[in-house]
Fold:
Amino acid sequence: MAGLGRAGQCLFVIAQLALTYSAMSEPAPEPDDTGEEAPGLRKIIHVDMDAFFASVEQRDEPALRGLPIAVGGDGPRGVLTTCSYEARKFGCRSAMPSVTAKRLCPDLIFRPPRFAVYNEVSRQVRDIFLDYTPHVEPLSLDEAFLDVTEDLKGIGSATRIAELIRARIKEETGLTASAGVSYNKFLAKLASDQNKPDGLCVIRPGEGADFVAKLPVRRFFGIGPKGAEKMAALGIETGADLALCDIAYLRRHFGSQADYLYRAARGIDLRRVKANRPRKSVGAERTLDKDISSGSALRDVLARIIEITWKRIESSKSEGRTVTLKLKHADFSQLTRARSLPRPVAGQAEFASIGHALLDEVLPLAQPVRLVGLTLSALEEEEPPQAPVGGPSQGTLPF
Ligand SMILES: [Mg+2]
Structure:
C-alpha cells in the first residue's frame, strides 16, 4: 500500500469494507428449497457472537472495555462494521456512516478492523461447533447454524449443548456468544437475537407460531429495512399481521419471497442446515494470555493443544497424514512447520511426538509468540449424511 497515496488507501479500505459487508450481510432465504428440505422435526442451534469485531478489540485492548467503540474507518466516508454495546446505547449501529455515529456519540472511539484476528477467532469458534456436530452452516464470521438432532456426545438436550458451546466459547476465546435453540433455522435465528448479549432462548415445538406473532416483521431473517417499510405501508407490522395475509396476496406483493413469508408467519421453515464447508483439517489453537518465548512454556502449551486436537480427531473419526505447527508472533507475523507421513498418523503418541519435533525445529525463537496452533490435515474422512429423524438410533433428543 506504500505507493498508493491517501486517496488510493482510502479506496482500498472502502473496497475491503464492502467485501466484508457482502460476506456479512444476511443472505435472503431461498424462497423454495424443494429437495433441500430438512427431514422431520429437527434440533437447530443458531450461535451469534455478541458485537463480534468490537468485542475482540475490547478483549485485546483492555483500556477499551466499558467504552463506546466502533470498528471501521472514522474518515468522512467511513462506515461502522460493528460497534460495542456501550455505543449502541447512543443509537450507533452496524452499517451506519461513521459521521452519523460520531454525531450520536461524540466520544465514540474508532479502531480499524483487524480481519486476520477475526478470522482466527472465527476458526476457533467453528472448531468448537464441530466438536458437537458435523452439520455446521456458517452465515458469516460470527454466526452459524448447527443441526444437533443427532446427540453425538450423549449430552441429553439441545439446550444443554447450546449452553456448553457458549461456555466453551467464553473460556477459549474470552468472548461471549448468544444462542437460539429451536426446531428450525428461522426460529433459532430469532431466538438467538432475543436475549442478547450473552443470552440463550429456546423456542420449543408448538411455541413457534405464538413467538412469531408478537414480533415486528423487521426482525425476520431476510426482511431488510426496505422490506419492512413496504410491509408497513401495507399495514403489516407484526408476525400476526403477516399471518393474516393469504398466499395469493403475498405473491402479488412479494413475488418469490411469498412462500417463505407464508411459512415464516406460522413459525415454519423447511430449509436444512447446509454444512457447506467440508472439513479439510482438524486442529486447535490458543491465543496466549501473554506473549511467551521460553521453550519449556511453549512445550506446555503445545501439550495441552495436542490433547484437545487429538480429542477432536477422535470424535470426528478423522485420519490424516500431515501435522502442521503454527506460531503467531507478537507482531502477527506467522511461522508454520509441517511434516507429512506416507500413511495416516497412527495415534496420539505419534501425533504428539511430531508436534513436539516441529516445535523443537523452531526453537529458540527470535521473538515471543501470541498464538500456538496444531492441525492434522490431508484427511481421509467423509462428511456424514444427515440422518432423518425417527430412526432407531436417535430422534428423542429433548430441547
Ligand atoms: Mg453477531
Q: What stands out?
A: Confidence is low (pLDDT under 50) at residues 1-35, 381-385, 387-395. The radius of gyration is 23 Å.
